[in-house]
Structure to design on (331 residues):
C-alpha cells in the first residue's frame, strides 16, 4: 500500500467534442482526445493535460502507457528537472511536467509565475482559427468571426490564393495569420506567399514540410514566416535562423512548460519572434502556455473556443481576450 506521504500518479484519456469539425491539410476531426496526468501528495493534486499528435507517431493509448510507466519514478520522488532527462520531448512528458509544476506551486502556496520567477501574464488577444475548406465555405465561416481582431486561417496548397482572398474580403479589418501545415511545395511557395502578402497577411506558418524547407532560405520572403513542425525545442532553433522569422512554441512539442520557457528565452536571444500555440484541447492545456504570452508576438490559444464544451473552471475568454488561469484550474 502506498504511503500517503509518497506521491501517486493517475492518468486517463479524455474526449471532448468539437463544435462542428476542425479541418487542416492533413484531415478533419470532430473531437479532441487528450491525456490527463494527476500527481497527488499530502492531499494536494497537480494536473497536466496533453494532446498526442499523430504527425509525430503519438497515439492516446501509447501516450497513456508512457505516462503510467513513470509511476515508480514518480513515487521515488522524480522532479521536473530530472524528468527532462528521463523522458523524450513530446506529449507524455508535457502532461507530467505540467502536473509536477502545478503540484509544486500548490505545495509552495504560490502562483506558478511567482514559483518560476516569470512575468505575471495578463490578458491577451488570441487568434481564432478558421478551418480549411472551399473559398466559399471559409468566407462564410470568416464572416461569422469577422469581429475578432486576429484570425488564423488554415490553408492547404493549390487554390490557397483564392481561399485567402475570399477570407480577406469577409474580414477586411482583422489581422490575418496563415497556417499551411506543411502543405505547400517548392512549385507554389512563392505564388502563395505573394497572394498572402497582397491581402495583408502578417505571418505564414510552416508552408513547406519539415526537413524540406531549405527553399525558404533562398527566396526573398515578402512577409514573416513561422516554423511549427520544423521546430521542437532549443536544440532545433539555430539551424532554422536563415529560413524563419518566428517560431511556434507548443508544449506538446517541447515536452512541457519547463523546456518551453527555456526555448522562448533562447529564441529571443537568436532574434526570432515568438508564437505560443496549442492543439485543440481544453483550458487545462492552455493554462501553462499562458506563462509564455509575455514573450509572444502572437498568441494562438483558442483550443477551448473550438470545443462544444470546456472542462469546469476553465480559462476566462471574453470574445478573443484570454485571461490567466485561476488556481482552481492550474498553477
Amino acid at each position: 500500500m502506498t504511503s500517503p506521504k509518497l506521491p501517486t500518479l493517475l492518468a486517463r484519456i479524455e474526449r471532448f467534442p468539437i463544435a462542428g469539425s476542425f479541418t487542416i491539410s492533413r484531415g478533419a476531426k470532430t473531437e479532441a482526445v487528450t491525456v490527463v496526468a494527476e500527481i497527488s501528495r499530502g492531499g494536494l493534486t497537480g494536473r497536466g493535460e496533453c494532446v498526442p499528435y499523430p504527425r509525430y507517431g503519438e497515439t492516446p493509448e501509447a501516450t497513456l502507457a508512457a505516462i503510467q510507466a513513470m509511476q515508480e519514478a514518480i513515487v521515488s520522488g522524480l522532479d521536473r528537472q530530472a524528468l527532462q532527462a528521463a523522458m523524450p520531448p513530446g506529449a507524455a512528458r508535457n502532461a507530467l511536467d505540467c502536473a509536477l509544476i502545478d503540484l509544486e506551486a500548490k505545495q509552495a502556496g504560490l502562483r506558478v509565475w511567482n514559483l518560476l520567477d516569470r512575468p505575471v501574464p495578463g490578458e491577451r488577444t488570441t487568434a481564432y482559427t478558421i478551418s480549411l475548406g472551399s473559398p466559399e465555405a471559409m468566407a462564410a465561416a470568416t464572416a461569422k468571426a469577422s469581429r475578432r481582431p486576429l484570425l488564423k486561417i488554415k490553408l492547404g496548397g493549390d487554390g490557397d490564393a483564392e481561399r485567402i482572398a475570399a477570407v480577406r474580403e469577409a474580414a477586411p479589418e482583422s489581422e490575418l495569420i496563415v497556417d499551411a501545415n506543411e502543405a505547400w511545395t517548392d512549385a507554389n511557395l512563392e505564388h502563395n506567399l505573394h497572394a498572402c502578402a497582397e491581402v495583408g497577411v502578417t505571418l505564414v506558418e510552416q508552408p513547406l514540410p519539415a526537413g524540406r524547407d531549405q527553399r525558404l532560405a533562398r527566396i526573398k520572403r515578402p512577409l514573416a514566416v513561422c516554423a511549427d513542425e520544423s521546430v521542437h525545442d532549443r536544440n532545433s532553433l539555430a539551424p532554422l535562423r536563415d529560413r524563419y522569422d518566428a517560431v511556434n512554441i507548443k508544449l506538446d512539442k517541447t515536452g512541457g512548460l519547463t523546456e518551453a520557457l527555456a526555448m522562448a528565452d533562447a529564441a529571443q536571444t537568436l532574434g526570432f519572434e515568438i508564437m505560443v500555440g496549442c492543439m485543440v484541447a481544453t483550458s487545462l492545456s492552455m493554462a501553462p502556455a499562458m506563462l509564455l504570452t509575455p514573450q509572444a508576438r502572437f498568441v494562438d490559444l483558442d483550443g477551448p473556443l473550438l470545443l462544444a464544451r470546456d472542462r469546469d473552471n476553465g480559462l476566462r475568454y471574453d470574445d478573443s481576450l484570454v485571461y490567466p488561469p485561476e488556481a482552481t484550474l492550474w498553477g
